[in-house]
Specification:
Oligomer: heterodimer
Helix content of chain B: 40-55%
Shape of chain B: elongated
Number of helices of chain A: 6
Radius of gyration of chain A: 17 Å
Strand order of the largest sheet of chain A: 5-4-3-7-8
Largest sheet of chain B: 8 strands, mixed
Distance between the termini of chain B: 34 Å
Helix content of chain A: 25-40%
Distance between the termini of chain A: 21 Å
Order of helices and strands of chain A: HEEEHHEHEHEEEHE
Structural class of chain A: alpha/beta
Structural class of chain B: alpha+beta
Largest interface: A-B, 29 and 24 residues
Number of strands of chain B: 26
């Protein structure tokens, strides 16, 4: 793309993104979106402005996601979150034909099967929400505290597909939620995300 | 060759190699682990080579995998010792893009080495069991983590390195990044980062691509394009910052792909760059920069090159003081001439930059052709002012149609301003070129407006015009006096030229300038035969200039002390006498050659070793593509430099690797020539 058209495209994109930030930033308002969940309900980030929200990018066929679901780690995080009135949203941004792409019925069935307990599951086959948050891996976690982005990055600090590493690792999501509940600042607001790439 | 060697490492049955080896396969990767020694002593450290061959389209990852992925890991256990996570070596990575994300890794095949120490309590005569667990993530579209376990049985006994493994390990070492010889720093401009390397090797080099791979996540946005700019001072790569804090310094690898003859060389340079705070990139300061450009243009009027032109134009005004229409038309056409010239200049530079060429005002003036042309123009204008010829009189607006001649004078003023303002304009132009195109053009036009402004104001204002002194003989005197600053500029340009070409070429070009002077004088005479002589002189001048400038970029290459220039005859003669010879084929634009020269070929130890072994050192400078050197390259199946050949007294040359270390040279020299009996290494 030559400089001229790149300049033009850049200008256009900046204008189109409206109030939303071009890239998510810690301490700034989290990008807003409205969509339908797999249970045909309306979901809007604006409506959750007074809650703590966790966004989890997922892909059931990715070995790194399987590490956390197979071991029960993700499910227990989701249950703990629900108990604290934290809204957990699982987002599937795989494009049609790519690994992890499912329809609403399959997504709900998978969730049942695995004993997962997110508050909502969102399908994002166009990748719009994924790109809004610059989600790069599955899993990629975002914790939003009353509309402000408080954490983004990998789920823990051991970058592997080996379930045996989970007990040894520091879980960043748990740490962030604990800090928010206590009213403290999140110690590690940005962590290196790891996993399979999001299949846009 | 490298692929072949790795394949050999994997496919040869273990029995054929005395050094212990194990091969494991998964659906996507064939992997092998081999020890560097056939047997090793207790307490000795040996090397293991892990080779991975991926099926087509699949890749594994570098130590910083990029946006997603996982680096390869190796866990080694020697006998009863506790398991250790090996520190692997990492060949220069490639960027692997996927759907807007970018990972860093390897496609096809890759090898890594690690050290392992034989436990001190190992018994000689026994077999030491070594187990290694290798884990990697192999991906195409989808990703699959894989783990394999290797088992080696290493005989414990006297240390016996394996010769075949030594070749594979040398080959592996060639794939690793080398330590960068250039000072580097990372300038934090807020939104963007500028990685800056200082050195003179980049300006003339034929770099096809430059890619920076930081050692850890979060420093840069891996997917953002990296814009390369080169100048005589060094190289700059503009990067988009990543999500994490930068810290005090950033470690990583810069991979340069350079073109050498018909070959492409891809080399990684490893360095740690301190982070420095810099002014935010001036994307919001466009207006300020345009203002500065205007001011700069005004200052240009005072430069010794431009001032004469301005003064002559002002003199022309004196002649037309009473005629407002001519005066104003003259002023406007001059301004138009200047603005158009600057716009064209700006457009050309921007066009070059779009095409990816190394562009910058100062850089373009490194070309001897441009310098000579400017010197010739200075001479011509000065000779005209001195009255040597009068054809150009109209150009100066001392007669003829005000509109056209003023326009041309404007163009002339721009050209003539060029050399005097190089240091000043370099900054302005450099700053302009990183702006979006419309802003860059505006900056160039503002520069032009500043240059034209004084004369424009003079021509538009009747009051100022009236303030000029009355015409008189003083005009001629002033005109002749103004020629001298221009002569001075021409002399300075010749001095710059003398730094760029050799003494003979400098002499030819100086004579060409003199001949040019004679030619214009002769051509402007009324007598026909004299004009003819002038025409011939012009041709002679062109011939002299062409001869001297035919090989531009014949810059002084690295001085090769103690070396003879390579000639096929010389080599033949030395070989006939059974003398050992070391040949270094290099070029001024070859970065790999330059780095090798600095790292291994300039040291005292190197020269001492040559002397001690009575090896003759020949250097072939291929900067201007010498056919004899091309022949020698082709003889060894190569299409470009560098090529390092160590000739033993008889037998074929040993071809040394492209990345030289002092150790490689020492080993090669020891192989081709013994120490002469009374010499010390």
């Amino acid at each position: 793309m030559n400089l001229m058209s790149r300049f033009g495209l850049g200008a256009a994109l900046t204008l189109l993104s409206g109030l939303a930030l071009a890239a998510p930033e810690i301490g700034k308002p989290a990008p807003d979106f409205s969509t339908m969940t797999t249970l045909d309900e309306n979901l809007s980030m604006g409506a959750l402005a007074d809650k703590t929200v966790v966004l989890e990018w997922t892909n059931a066929d990715c070995p790194y996601v399987q590490k956390h679901y197979g071991s029960g780690n993700m499910q227990s995080l989701q249950e703990a979150a629900a108990a604290d009135d934290v809204v957990w949203i699982s987002v599937i941004s795989s494009a049609p034909g790519k690994q992890g792409h499912v329809d609403a019925a399959t997504a709900n069935a998978l969730s049942e099967e695995r004993g997962a307990a997110p508050a909502h599951i969102v399908l994002d086959p166009s990748g719009e929400i994924g790109r809004l948050y610059d989600a790069r891996t599955t899993p990629h976690m975002f914790v939003i505290d009353k509309g402000t982005l408080a954490f983004m990055g990998g789920i823990d600090d051991i970058r592997s597909a080996n379930p045996a590493d989970i007990p040894k690792a520091t879980n960043y999501v748990t740490a962030a939620l604990t800090a928010i509940k206590a009213g403290d600042a999140v110690e590690t607001p940005i962590a290196k995300p790891y996993g399979c790439s999001v299949k846009y | 060759m490298r692929a072949l060697l790795i394949l050999i490492a994997i496919l040869l049955p273990a029995a054929a190699l005395a050094a212990p080896r194990d091969v494991q396969s998964t659906p996507h990767v064939t992997a092998s682990l081999a020890a560097s020694h056939d047997s090793a002593a207790p307490g000795e450290s040996i090397t293991v080579l892990l080779s991975l061959a991926m099926i087509e389209g699949w890749h594994v990852y570098w130590r910083n995998p990029g946006d997603s992925g996982e680096a390869t890991k190796l866990r080694l256990v020697a006998g009863d010792a506790p398991p250790q996570d090996a520190a692997l070596t990492w060949p220069s990575p490639h960027a692997v893009p996927y759907q807007g994300l970018v990972n860093y890794g390897y496609e096809g095949e890759v090898s890594h080495t690690a050290s392992i120490t034989i436990p001190r309590d190992a018994q000689a005569g026994t077999l030491l069991p070594i187990t290694a667990e290798a884990t990697w993530l192999v991906c195409e579209d989808i990703c699959i983590p894989e783990t394999v376990t290797f088992t080696l049985a290493l005989p414990v006994g006297p240390s016996a390195p394996s010769a075949l493994m030594a070749d594979l390990l040398t080959d592996h070492a060639q794939q690793l990044p080398r330590e960068s010889p250039w000072p580097a720093r990372l300038a934090d401009h807020g939104e963007t980062l500028a990685l800056e390397l200082s050195g003179t090797d980049f300006a003339n080099a034929k770099i096809e691509a430059a890619e920076y791979f930081p050692g850890r996540w979060g420093v840069i946005d891996h997917a953002a394009p990296q814009e390369l700019r080169r100048s005589t001072e060094g190289l700059q790569l503009t990067l988009k910052r990543g999500a994490d804090a930068l810290g005090a310094a950033v470690e990583g690898v810069l991979v340069l792909t350079e073109k050498s003859g018909g070959e492409t060389i891809r080399t990684g340079y490893h360095f740690t760059a301190p982070v420095v705070q810099a002014a935010p990139a001036a994307s919001t300061n466009a207006l300020l920069m345009i203002g500065f450009a205007l001011l700069g243009g005004l200052i240009l009027n005072l430069m010794p090159c431009v001032f004469p032109v301005l003064a002559i134009k002002a003199l022309a005004l004196v002649g037309h003081a009473g005629d407002p229409r001519t005066r104003i038309l003259g002023g406007l056409s001059y301004t138009a001439g200047v603005l158009v010239s600057f716009a064209v200049l700006g457009g050309v530079l921007i066009g070059f930059k779009q095409a990816g060429a190394a562009v910058g005002w100062g850089f373009q003036l490194q070309s001897p052709i441009v310098i000579f042309a400017l010197a010739a123009i200075m001479m011509l204008v000065a000779l005209n002012l001195s009255g040597v010829y009068t054809i150009g009189g109209r150009l100066m607006g001392l007669g003829g149609s005000a509109g056209r001649s003023s326009f041309l004078t404007g163009v002339l003023a721009t050209i003539v301003a060029a050399p005097c303002t190089a240091p000043f304009m370099a900054t302005a132009v450099g700053a302009a070129l990183i702006q979006p195109v419309p802003v860059a053009l505006l900056i160039f036009v503002a520069l032009g407006l500043g240059l034209a402004l004084p004369y424009l104001l003079l021509s538009l204002s009747p009051a100022l015009a009236r303030a000029l002194p009355k015409p008189g003989a003083w005009m001629k005197t002033l005109q002749q006096a103004l020629a001298f600053p221009l002569y001075g500029t021409a002399v300075w340009l010749v001095w710059v030229l003398s730094q760029q070409v050799d003494e003979t070429a400098t002499l030819s070009l100086m004579l060409a300038l003199v001949t040019l002077g004679f030619a214009v004088w002769a051509v402007s005479r009324t007598s026909r035969p004299v004009r003819l002589v002038g025409g011939i002189a012009m041709l002679i001048m062109l011939g002299l200039a062409w001869g001297a400038l035919r090989t531009p970029g014949a810059a002084h290459s690295v001085s090769h002390a103690g070396a003879e220039p390579y000639r096929a005859e010389t080599l033949k003669g030395l070989r006939a006498q059974n003398r050992p010879v070391f040949v270094n084929l290099t070029a001024a634009w070859c970065i790999t050659c330059k780095v090798n020269e600095r790292a291994a070929l300039s040291s005292e130890a190197f020269h001492a070793d040559l002397a001690a072994r009575s090896i003759t050192y020949l250097v072939g400078d291929w900067t201007n593509q010498d056919p004899e050197i091309t022949a020698l390259l082709e003889q060894h199946g190569r299409a470009g430099v560098p090529l390092y050949l160590a000739y033993p007294p008889d037998g074929p040359a040993i071809v040394l690797p492209q990345i030289l270390t002092p150790a490689i040279l020492r080993a090669a020299f020891a192989q081709i020539a013994p120490l002469t009996k009374d010499a010390q290494p």
